[in-house]
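User: tokens in, sequence out, please.
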């Protein structure tokens, strides 16, 4: 009997990378390498070119995630600074207005969190495909060697996954907004 989870918990759960066996059946064509243009060399060159392109595309997802982070950090810092200046020393601001502003800011932090989570999921899938492609190449630098060198993410002294750190930032901003709202209401 499977245990049901609360729907919200599934948004925070990260599925482990696991085996790439399910990808293998979808990744490769039925084309026999020996029949590829009549020569195996052409097949290998094509495979390497596809691999290089796919790794570049996976790297671009990481770059776009960095841009999204920069956007949201700039947005939050600007809004926080603006609101601090507007509400500084003001005690007559209606609580309802503060509550609406806080709700909007916290909602924006959740959008930021889900955006980062989505990029993380997309990149995880792309790197699983890269690992499956490396099984047909002479070396497996990313899927096996690098991951082993990093302790497979199990030892924070060797490697602390950036995605875990960066997804904490929007939650911290959200907590700062809620704490600021509570402090403003209490000091009235």
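Assistant: Sequence out:
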């Amino acid at each position: 009997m499977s245990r049901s989870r609360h729907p919200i918990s599934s948004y925070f759960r990260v599925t482990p990378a696991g085996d790439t066996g399910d990808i293998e059946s979808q990744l490769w064509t039925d084309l026999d390498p020996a029949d590829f243009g009549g020569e195996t060399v052409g097949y290998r060159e094509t495979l390497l070119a596809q691999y290089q392109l796919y790794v570049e595309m996976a790297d671009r997802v990481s770059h776009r995630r960095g841009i999204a982070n920069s956007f949201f950090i700039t947005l939050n810092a600007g809004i926080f600074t603006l609101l601090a200046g507007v509400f500084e020393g003001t005690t007559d601001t209606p609580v309802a207005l503060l509550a609406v502003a806080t709700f909007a800011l916290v909602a924006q932090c959740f959008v930021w969190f889900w955006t980062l989570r989505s990029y993380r999921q997309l990149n995880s899938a792309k790197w699983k495909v890269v690992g499956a492609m490396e099984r047909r190449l002479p070396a497996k630098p990313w899927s096996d060697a690098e991951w082993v060198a990093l302790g497979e993410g199990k030892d924070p002294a060797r490697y602390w996954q950036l995605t875990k750190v960066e997804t904490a930032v929007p939650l911290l901003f959200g907590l700062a907004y809620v704490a600021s709202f509570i402090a403003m209401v209490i000091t009235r």
